[in-house]
């Protein structure tokens, strides 16, 4: 606070005045107010009054010491008289060019070039500008009711949003449970295979070990008998069996040496690991279109009707509008069937851009606030059938992508990042990249479309 005070004293006088210059005070300068304008409701120093007199020659200015009654400007108590942009300034004028209430700062900063600026006193006396109070009052009541309804609706939307949030949390947990169940299944299958291989190898080793022990036992017996004094015939038999058993032992040893030291190793499923590594989430969170509760029995009536010419110099035929989409800034995009094009209209419904299409556009829908999808087809010619993705940017229609289809394309709708396309006899679901998800329905029994 002290530093601010010192700054003020350095910029202006070090004397404090009962009335300060309104303009200088806004710049943090402390100069005495010597002149007063009753229309602007401002006081001015001897320098600022020169600019005021130059800009507003019809404003009468009274001096502090010229004998006239000196009016000291106080802060406006009633906030309705204060400017909404310059919140400490009192409203003093009305600009008919922009239909705005002005303070003197508004006039100086933004409305100096306006030709129809009047004081509030002049405007209030003008019979031609008198506003019907009854109509305004009714409008206020209607606006208040609509705003209150919107507040109530906002509360309901918060509850609905919370419910959808909790539901999605459950869906995420359920998705995780399904993944866990599948991982458990894969784990069980892998462990089952491990147990089977382990048992087979273990049994093989045990069988070979058992055969080794049997060979050792037989060779030991045959060797002992050869040392005994037995008949020549028995000696020959024993010798022959000993040779055969030795050969069998050698054969067994070769097999066991070949299969010596078997072990088990685990080779992870790299495709599964990479697939999980490539995933960034369990699913996409999408903001759906608002679900408006509309009374199906409500009578729809036309409140107003206007006609605009959207035909351009390059159009060969009258316009046949088969689709209308709006952008976030209020512009319209229309599909002109008869002239094979899409046109961009500004808020005055003037054509500001258009792009030609290879075939007539049958239908169009928004896929975002500035993007549209248009179906094009030539009957009995699938080569030209497809979806044209367009984008509106800077008052121009930009071609983004063309998705080729192997069937005729008529109607289209965009729901939850998927495109639903009709062919006259079937309904297809596509990703926005053009990949067919599935054919949802088909009926060839009646007239198509």
UniProtKB/TrEMBL annotation:
<keyword id="KW-0863">Zinc-finger</keyword>
<feature type="domain" description="B box-type">
    <location>
        <begin position="78"/>
        <end position="133"/>
    </location>
</feature>
<keyword id="KW-0175">Coiled coil</keyword>
<dbReference type="GO" id="GO:0061630">
    <property type="term" value="F:ubiquitin protein ligase activity"/>
</dbReference>
<keyword id="KW-0479">Metal-binding</keyword>
<dbReference type="GO" id="GO:0008270">
    <property type="term" value="F:zinc ion binding"/>
</dbReference>
<protein>
    <recommendedName>
        <fullName>B box-type domain-containing protein</fullName>
    </recommendedName>
</protein>
<keyword id="KW-0862">Zinc</keyword>
<feature type="coiled-coil region">
    <location>
        <begin position="169"/>
        <end position="211"/>
    </location>
</feature>
<dbReference type="Pfam" id="PF01436">
    <property type="entry name" value="NHL"/>
</dbReference>
<dbReference type="Pfam" id="PF00643">
    <property type="entry name" value="zf-B_box"/>
</dbReference>
<dbReference type="InterPro" id="IPR047153">
    <property type="entry name" value="TRIM45/56/19-like"/>
</dbReference>
<dbReference type="InterPro" id="IPR011044">
    <property type="entry name" value="Quino_amine_DH_bsu"/>
</dbReference>
<dbReference type="InterPro" id="IPR000315">
    <property type="entry name" value="Znf_B-box"/>
</dbReference>
<dbReference type="InterPro" id="IPR001258">
    <property type="entry name" value="NHL_repeat"/>
</dbReference>
<keyword id="KW-0677">Repeat</keyword>
């Amino acid at each position: 606070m002290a530093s601010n005070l010192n700054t003020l004293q350095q910029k202006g006088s070090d004397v404090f005045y009962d009335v300060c210059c309104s303009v200088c005070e806004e710049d943090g300068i402390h100069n005495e107010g010597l002149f007063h304008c009753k229309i602007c409701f401002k006081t001015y120093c001897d320098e600022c009054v020169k600019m005021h007199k130059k800009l507003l020659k019809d404003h009468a200015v009274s001096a502090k010491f010229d004998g006239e009654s000196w009016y000291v400007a106080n802060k406006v108590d009633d906030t309705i008289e204060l400017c909404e942009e310059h919140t400490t300034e009192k409203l003093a004028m009305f600009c008919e060019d922009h239909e705005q209430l002005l303070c003197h700062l508004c006039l100086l900063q933004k409305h100096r070039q306006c030709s129809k600026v009047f004081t509030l006193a002049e405007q209030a006396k003008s019979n031609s500008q008198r506003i019907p109070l009854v109509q305004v009052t009714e409008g206020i009541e209607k606006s208040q009711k609509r705003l209150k309804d919107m507040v109530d609706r906002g509360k309901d939307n918060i509850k609905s949003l919370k419910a959808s949030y909790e539901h999605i949390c459950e869906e995420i947990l359920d998705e995780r449970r399904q993944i866990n169940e599948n991982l458990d299944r894969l784990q069980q299958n892998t462990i089952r295979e491990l147990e089977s291989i382990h048992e087979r190898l273990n049994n093989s080793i045990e069988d070979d070990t058992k055969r080794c022990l049997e060979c050792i036992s037989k060779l030991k017996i045959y060797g002992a008998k050869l040392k005994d004094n037995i008949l020549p015939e028995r000696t020959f038999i024993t010798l022959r069996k000993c040779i055969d058993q030795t050969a069998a032992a050698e054969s067994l040893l070769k097999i066991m040496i070949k299969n010596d030291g078997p072990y088990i190793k685990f080779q992870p499923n790299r495709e599964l690991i990479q697939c999980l590594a490539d995933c960034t989430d369990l699913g996409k969170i999408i903001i759906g279109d608002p679900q408006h509760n509309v009374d199906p029995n409500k009578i729809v009536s036309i409140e107003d009707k206007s006609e605009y010419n959207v035909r351009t110099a390059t159009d060969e035929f009258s316009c046949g509008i088969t689709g209308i989409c709006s952008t976030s800034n209020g512009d319209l995009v229309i599909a002109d069937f008869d002239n094979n094009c899409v046109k961009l209209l500004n808020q005055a419904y003037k054509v500001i851009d258009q792009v030609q299409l290879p075939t007539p556009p049958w239908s169009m829908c928004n896929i975002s606030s500035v993007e549209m999808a248009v179906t094009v087809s030539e009957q009995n010619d699938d080569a030209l059938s497809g979806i044209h993705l367009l984008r509106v940017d800077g008052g121009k229609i930009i071609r983004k992508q063309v998705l080729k289809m192997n069937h005729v394309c008529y109607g289209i709708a965009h729901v939850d990042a998927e495109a639903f396309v009709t062919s006259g006899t079937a309904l297809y679901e596509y990703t926005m990249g053009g990949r067919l998800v599935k054919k949802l329905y088909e009926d060839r029994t009646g007239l198509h479309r």
